[in-house]
Amino acid sequence: MQSPQVKVLMVCLGNICRSPTAHAVFVQRVEEAGLSKRIAVDSAGTGDWHIGHKPDTRARAAGAKRGYDLDSLRARQVCAEDFNEFDYILAMDENNLRDLQRLSPPDQRHKIRLFLEFTDQNVSAVPDPYYGGPEGFEQVLDLVESACDGLLAHIADTELRAR
Ligand code: 4NP
For residue 5, what pLDDT band results from cuts at 50, 70 and 90? Predict the structure, then answer.
């Protein structure tokens, strides 16, 4: 039987900058829409360097300025069960996409997509802000907010209607 919940996994490299930002923003959008019981959100990294760590201080500060709370999140690595568990496995950039496709069982690869497919802005990747300045974290938030709006509209139009 199909799960009554739609499950969304946000994925980047470290799970301390981009994907926790997307995680926190999408949780807030889902709550605002009154859909918390129907849409579950998580995030993970393809790399293992930051397992157990809080999101990057700069990501937490930039998010907090816009009203998003990243403080309770802890980094984890993508694992084999994720490919069965989640309906949408959303990569922040093309490297994350390739790594996920390589890790995924072939019959689950259709779940893996670029997160920015859900924005109408003409950009495919959320740039990695880790080695840059604070403006990079603002750009992440701008792209993430836009794609979260598009993703929520898409799920509401397609998945929730069908379940
Ligand atoms: P994220 O950013 O993938 O958006 O979490 C990064 C965080 C850490 C590293 C690279 C990217 N790192 O090399 O440790």
Answer: very high
